[in-house]
Write a structure and sequence with these properties.
The chain has 168 residues and is of the alpha+beta class. It is built from 1 helix and 9 strands, in the order H-E-E-E-E-E-E-E-E-E. Strand 2 and strand 3 form a beta hairpin. The radius of gyration is 29 Å and the shape is elongated. The structure holds FE2/S2 (inorganic) cluster.
Length: 168
């Protein structure tokens, strides 16, 4: 039996070496470009800033709707987006609710259904919520309205992200 000899010719050796070095150099040039292109996507989302919305003196026990704008940074794209909140106070306690219905995302209104006084009402499929945002069983929404993170500074109410009730 003849034994096959595995010899590498000078030409093959040069080919392998040049291919390896070329590949290494190409990777060295491409990696920073790929990193630059993907960086905004890979970066963790920064906490949304708190936005000044209204003077605390204007708050009442009756929920009022306040509109405000936030700076939204989405990868490479920065934009200003509108937000709304239903806000009321009870003594020193301020509650700020998202108006987005937890059924299919319509906008809820306070006290707009004559048959259901002092409740948040969603006209799309007759969803109902209590004043504190709790969904009324037997109506389409299966969860409470989201609550805005909020803080009071120098007599003004600042709102952050709307989060599901009880979420940190
Ligand atoms: S979207 Fe509000 S009840 Fe359906």
């Amino acid at each position: 039996m003849s034994e096959k000899r595995h010899q590498v010719s000078r030409r093959q050796f040069l080919n392998y070496t040049l291919t390896g070095v070329g590949g290494f150099m190409a990777a060295g040039m491409l990696m920073p470009m790929v990193r630059f292109a993907l960086d905004p996507v890979l970066r963790p989302t920064e906490n949304q800033e708190m936005v000044q919305v209204v003077s605390v003196d204007e708050l009442t026990e009756e929920p009022q709707r306040f509109d405000f704008k936030i700076n939204q940074v989405d990868a490479w794209y920065e934009s200003e987006e509108s937000r709304s909140a239903w806000v009321y106070k009870n003594g020193d306690k301020v509650t700020a609710l998202s108006p987005i219905c937890k059924h299919l995302g319509c906008t809820v209104n306070w006290n707009s259904d004559p048959k259901n006084k002092n409740m948040f009402f969603c006209p799309c499929h007759y969803g109902l919520y209590e004043k504190d945002g709790t969904n009324v069983p037997g109506t389409p929404p299966l969860g409470p309205l989201d609550h805005y993170e909020h803080e009071i500074r120098d007599g003004f109410l600042y709102l952050g992200k709307a989060k599901p009730k009880g979420a940190g």
